[in-house]
Design goal:
Elements lengths: L12 H67 L5 H6 L2 H14 L3 E4 L10 E5 L3 E8 L6 E2 L1 H15 L3 E6 L2 E2 L1 H9 L2 E4 L1 H9 L4 H4 L17
Parallel strand pairs: 3-5, 4-6, 5-7
Antiparallel strand pairs: 1-2, 2-3
Length: 227
């Protein structure tokens, strides 16, 4: 049987019991002093803690209101968005894609820019509960530039199989060759040339009205709106 440590045995005799009582009293006194000091420190510090908490809450509220105001201003800006042909002509390819995205957002589509290397002929994809999914292929060119039939072939081959699109559109700030227009109309690839782009971007005619897009069943998936 292991021996018990002499330090753990109960006090024996009057002297040891008195000493133990003195130690206990000293410990209680120390705990009381610590509790008192803690309380006094809390009394002195709590106004500062309350102030810091109020500042944190105020900052969070300000950030929330700022974000809400920014969303509202963007929505109002998009609602009255008008982009001139001169502005579109001055853009580079990527800016042109983002401009088309913003025009779709203005028209009520849930749209995002997706154009990049390997995009499989999709620069902007939009979603609408009534009209399904739309894929835009952007062809930014010079004023006199012409888009040929090859762009129509490419979009027709990928819009449905690769992107699940209900509607495929090729948009340019130039024009299309006669063969491209004819092929597109025959194979349900819509086209927006310079004249149609003016009606859409400058005059504010919604793309769905411009192209007379039919209503389609709603899809379960949707893209998040761009910030």
């Amino acid at each position: 049987m292991p021996r018990r440590s002499p330090w753990l045995r109960p006090p024996r005799g009057g002297k040891e019991q008195a000493a133990a009582a003195a130690v206990a009293c000293a410990a209680l006194w120390l705990l009381a002093k610590i509790a008192t000091a803690t309380w006094q420190a809390a009394v002195r510090v709590w106004p500062l803690l309350v102030l810091l908490a109020a500042l944190a809450l105020g900052h969070a509220a300000w950030q929330f209101l700022r974000a809400a105001r920014a969303r509202k201003m963007r929505a109002e800006t998009l609602a009255r968005l008008r982009i001139t042909l001169a502005q579109l002509d001055a853009m580079d390819d990527r800016a042109f894609e983002f401009a088309l995205r913003d025009l779709l957002l203005r028209d009520g589509w849930n749209a995002r820019q997706v154009g990049r290397q390997g995009d499989q002929a999709a620069d902007v994809i939009g979603e609408d509960r009534q009209r399904g999914r739309i894929v835009l292929q952007a062809k930014h060119t010079t004023v006199t530039g012409k888009v040929g039939s090859s762009a129509m072939y490419q979009v027709k081959g990928t819009a449905g199989p690769a992107h699940g699109a209900d509607t495929a559109v090729v948009v340019t700030n130039g024009s299309f060759t006669r063969d491209a227009k004819t092929w597109g109309e025959r194979h349900q690839v819509h086209w927006v040339d310079r004249d149609r782009l003016r009606q859409w971007a400058e005059h504010g005619t919604p793309l769905q009205d411009l192209l007379r897009l039919p209503n389609r069943p709603a899809r379960k998936t949707a893209f998040r709106r761009a910030a």
